Amino acid sequence: MSATLYRALYHVAGVAVRWYYREVDFDGTERIPQAGPLLLVCNHPNELVDALFAGLAARRQLTFTGKATLFANPMAAALLRYLKVVPLRRAKDEATRDPAVAADPTRNAQAFAAIFDALADGEAVLVFPEGLSWNEPKLAPLRTGAARMALGARDDAGVRGLRIVPVGINYERKDGVRSRVLVEVGEPLAIDDWPGRDVDVLTAELSRRLHAVTLNFDDDVAADEVLDVATVLASVSDEVRPLGDEAPVAAMVAVARRADAIRRRLAAGDLAPHEEQRVRHVQRRLVALRRTALRLGIRLDDVALDTSLVPSGRFVVREALVTALGAPFALWGRLNHRLPFTLARRLGLRLANSRTQPAMLTVMAGLVLVPLFYAAQTWLVHRLAGWPWSLAYAASLVPSASWDLWFSDRWRRMQRRARAWAVFRDDPALQGKLRDELFALRDQARALATAVETPAS
Asked: 418 near 296, Cβ under 8 Å?
């Protein structure tokens, strides 16, 4: 695939995932070398969307790997080969073909040779070492493929300067439209300096590094519980954040890691009685506070809201101006994209058979439907008004869609803040009580985490 086409697809993919997800943050991308042989090892909770995020993080052209079963369809196989996807045969796929026949240990010899050639040419290769995309809120046990690729490239193919870089993709809600994502890049591992060629030892090290940049929970209940707590605690601020300026998703992930470490120690009975009592006391108060906020229809990060007349007046004037100036362009984006966006979302939900698929299927359907609608709508404008108007119309489509999504998020946030203002204006004592309780819980949670979390090894 030519570099020009790859860059074009890179930008299209960037637009697609940012339309689906409200916020995408990248942390540590400077750790990814922009030249020389590279293995990116990435967790795989969300099908093809994970590859899109890995490509956006890398900022250099990738050679992809994918399960060989994707190549069963001739048209799909032609496209995947054009996109430089190297097919890997998984042992379970070979066994499924004929359960009585053991998987051929040399089944991926050709694929490994292609990967060694790519690395020898200084290319970057993306590998999902879990070997599958799955629904569990934690990493699957890593397969040895990535380690065998790295050691084979060094020792058998003579590749020098190879680095392995872990990439963790952390979804707030992986199938949630307009939710948030953190793509976190870990510390590179220089294979030239790695001692020996024990595949299992290297796999264990890759697992450790991937765990360091991903959220891992025992089950969905624990994930929901910890993420809810982390979202509340990360959003607490002594000052009200501007509309659209949420607590960074990286802050939420950091709090979630600390909260989950405490939760695990609590479940294991590894806390002193007084520490366990403090943890459970904070948990109960946080749950009660969240229930109160849900009942009132407010967000807890609005409890510091100033309801006096001057700042309230500024808020009304500002939002009225934003609405007056921004609503028409947002409406234009809504009119032109409502149908393809709705169809793509419905297709994604209808065709999905697991939580790993709705985002991927929606994005893929959108990548087909949106250009088709663009072409049809632009042709219609051309027929009605001529080329100058059709060109102007086409140029407005992508910006207006992005603006509509941003404006819609801000509008919902504005409505929630206006509701909080009305509640607190009507009952200032309630606001003071909620504010004091939230800030006290934040401080107690910080102190508790410092006191009971396991010291870094």
From this structure: no
* d(C-alpha 43, C-alpha 31), whole Å: 17
CA distance 457 to 448: 19
CA distance 243 to 319: 10
All residues at 6 or more sequence positions from 277 whose CB lies less than 8 Å from its CB, including other chains: none
Locus of tokens 């060109």? 391
Percent of the chain with pLDDT over 70: 93
Could you read off the pLDDT of 97-107 as tens digits, one per residue? 555 444 555 66
Amino acid identity for residue 157 in this structure: A
**CB atoms < 10 A from the CB of 305, how many?**
20
Q: DSSP secondary-structure letter at 29?
A: G
Token representation of residue 371: 């250009």
Token look-up 């890995």 returns 54
Distance CA 444, CA 278 (A): 9
Tell me the three state secondary structure of residue 183: strand
Residues across the chain: 457
Low-confidence ranges of the chain (pLDDT < 70): 1-2, 70, 73, 75-77, 79, 90-107, 453-457
Residue type, 194: W
Query: Are 225 and 188 in contact, with CB atoms under 8 Å apart?
Result: no
Dihedral (Cα; 222, 225, 226, 229), 10-degree rounding: -170
Q: Report how far Cα 281 is from the mean position of its chain's Cα atoms.
A: 32
Which pTM value belongs to this model?
Answer: 0.88
pLDDT for position 357: 87
- The tens digit of pLDDT for each residue in 383-430 reads 999 999 999 999 999 999 999 999 999 999 999 999 999 999 999 999
Q: Specify whether the CB–CB gap between 85 and 65 falls below 8 A.
A: yes
Nearest to 89 by CA among 69, 75, 73, 74: 69
DSSP state letter for 170: E
- Give 126's strand partners: 40, 64
DSSP letter string, 292-307: HHHHHT--GGGTT---
E-strand stretches of 348-441:
none
Cα angle at 211 between 205 and 214, to 5 degrees?
Answer: 145
Rg (CA), the chain: 25
| 190 bridge partner residues | 163
